[in-house]
Amino acid sequence: MDLSKFIKETRIKQGLTMRKLASKAQISQAYISQIERGERHPQPDILRKLAVPLDVPYNKLMNIAGFLAEGQSASSLSAKSSIYEILKYKPTLGGEEITEIELDLAINVIKSFREAQKKK
């Protein structure tokens, strides 16, 4: 199913106007309109904001949006979502922009460090 159509149909079924959905999801009405017209493809953080007011499981929205394979859980993508969230701010190190691969490596190092700390 097409995400834009699904969001619009679900919003209408829930009796929500675009303005009300935007308010509940804390995103702009213009952005909701762009999503529903298929002009914008929302990232996982926006889908998470839409899930509750639309009364739709987050995993279902992630699946329809193409971020998850059938049966895959959104929790398996939380690190990837974090990477994209950080990269939006174009972080630099030594004057050079940090790449997705470098950030992924840094996150894995932090995870390993935390696991080692738990074992102490």
From TrEMBL:
Entry GO MF terms: DNA binding; DNA-binding transcription factor activity
CDD domains: HTH_XRE
A Pfam family assignment: HTH_3
Name used for this protein in its record: HTH cro/C1-type domain-containing protein
CC terms in the record's Gene Ontology section: cytosol
InterPro entries tied to this protein: Cro/C1-type_HTH (IPR001387), Lambda_DNA-bd_dom_sf (IPR010982), TransReg_Diox_bact_type (IPR050807)
Lineage top rank: taxon: Bacteria
UniProt KW Magnesium keyword: no
